[in-house]
What we know:
The protein has 247 residues and is mainly α. It has one domain. Helix 4 packs across helix 5 and helix 4 crosses helix 8. The N terminus is likely disordered. This is ELMO domain-containing protein. Pfam families: ELMO_CED12 (PF04727). InterPro entries: ELMO_dom (IPR006816), ELMO_domain-containing (IPR050868).
Amino acid sequence: xxxxxxxxxxxxxxxxxxxxxxxxxxxxxxxxxxxxxxxxxxxxxxxxxxxxxxxxxxxxxxxxxxxxxxxxxxxxxxxxxxxxxxxxxxxxxxxxxxxxxxxxxxxxxxxxxxxxxxxxxxxxxxxxxxxxxxxxxxxxxxxxxxxxxxxxxxxxxxxxxxxxxxxxxxxxxxxxxxxxxxxxxxxxxxxxxxxxxxxxxxxxxxxxxxxxxxxxxxxxxxxxxxxxxxxxxxxxxxxxxxxxxxx
Length: 247
């Protein structure tokens, strides 16, 4: 376990497929003394919410499914309402930070939920979304992270952090999240928005460039875990980093 002052480091490799899942397993938040032997038994409501979220996670992006096509078009329209999209495979997608002209190749690691997360962010926090997309805050690096690909990585990081593929949570952070989820079905999508904004804040604070992306992601995860374990946090909106979001 890392202490509060530590930031875990990993080998950095370029490309979204290589970024995904590399060295994101350490827990950097210290438990409170009262959490030494937590119980992770779930209520029926929490079990149902976890199962629904796991069902979402299990859905891979499939460019042949009309619902998936519509969601991708909806993302484009939310970001570029005045610009007509010429096709689901188009050089235009690079404007949003996809690696190539076919976003489906970047969804492999995050699945359909990573597209849903981006679309939720664009619709519910449009100012924060566009600030990140266009890199409008702070002194930016000459070698910036690609926005959309970073978004897929954030989805993957949160699934790992919250241990969402397990039958029941095995960490206090995961157990706390399921309480949030049982009270708000959009909790994962909201946390995604918080995490994206926090990641960019960490990026600026660390004066990072492209090759520092994994280091920044680890720092982001550590900060989120610490915030989850703060006293008197009963919902996501009470996390300190939630204040970074603007509508």
